[in-house]
Write a sequence for this structure.
């Protein structure tokens, strides 16, 4: 890659990291809220939820019964990525108000570099927080090996990149932080709920199962679930295999990045006309 491309990527990436570290409330919100959500739900549903029974047991492609804290663990890691994607991409609207984005757009930087730098910044922050949560895996009965930890980290990067790219695309088109939060909650929260993170698809109604199958985040959660139990059958019923789940997640990440680049180019053309 040329210096003309790498310099804006690194500069925008570093700016996102420094801004996030200085705003500790964003760290608390992005990590603390999903963690609290996971503990409260796990405590409330722990004695009544048995995902393996819903999935049909080990003999039917499922697994032995598992508590809700363990079942919801991969989904909570993805929720941390989701919250960080929201908090990091909202800075796009703030940068536009402050005039920073206008200065970036008139600079001789490739549009793809602008999108990539912002998205990589959000991805870095999201993965860093999710890795902290990954350290809690042994507490819920998930025995991580070096291979499973590396596989899980790689999948977290792919999912974080996809979600941050989606947030970037939405934020770039908006001028209101309130409108951004409303749209992100309307899109991302249902995506997360219907991804197999909150409940397994086996016990859902047929229309809900179809929506879950069409939801790209379903495959990100499934890939993470497979990676955490690398070489074993993950609890919680049947989930997509690791290879196709990872392929869909990478396609999702590529699609959101392409949409981000197109958004930057379109806004730049409109602003210049």
């Amino acid at each position: 890659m040329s210096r003309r491309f790498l310099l804006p990527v690194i500069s925008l990436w570093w700016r996102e990291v420094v801004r996030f570290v200085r705003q500790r409330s964003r760290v608390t919100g992005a990590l603390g809220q999903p963690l609290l959500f996971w503990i409260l739900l796990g405590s409330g549903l722990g004695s009544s939820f048995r995902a393996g029974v819903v999935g049909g047991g080990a003999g039917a492609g499922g697994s032995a019964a598992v508590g809700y804290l363990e079942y919801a663990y991969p989904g909570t890691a993805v929720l941390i990525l989701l919250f960080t994607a929201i908090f990091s991409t909202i800075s796009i609207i703030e940068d536009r108000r402050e005039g920073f984005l206008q200065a970036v757009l008139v600079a001789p930087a490739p549009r793809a570099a602008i999108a990539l730098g912002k998205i990589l910044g959000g991805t870095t922050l999201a993965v860093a927080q999710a890795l902290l949560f990954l350290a809690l895996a042994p507490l819920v009965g998930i025995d991580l090996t070096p291979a499973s930890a590396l596989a899980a980290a790689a999948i977290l990067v792919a999912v974080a990149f996809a979600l941050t790219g989606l947030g970037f695309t939405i934020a770039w088109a908006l001028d209101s932080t309130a409108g951004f939060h409303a749209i992100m909650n309307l899109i991302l929260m249902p995506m997360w709920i219907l991804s197999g993170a909150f409940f397994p698809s086996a016990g859902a109604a047929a229309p809900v199962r179809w929506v879950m199958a069409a939801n790209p985040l379903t495959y990100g959660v499934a890939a993470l679930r497979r990676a955490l139990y690398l070489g074993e059958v993950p609890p919680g019923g049947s989930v997509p295999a690791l290879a196709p789940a990872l392929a869909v997640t990478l396609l999702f990440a590529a699609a959101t990045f392409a949409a981000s680049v197109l958004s930057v180019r379109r806004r730049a053309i409109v602003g210049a006309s």
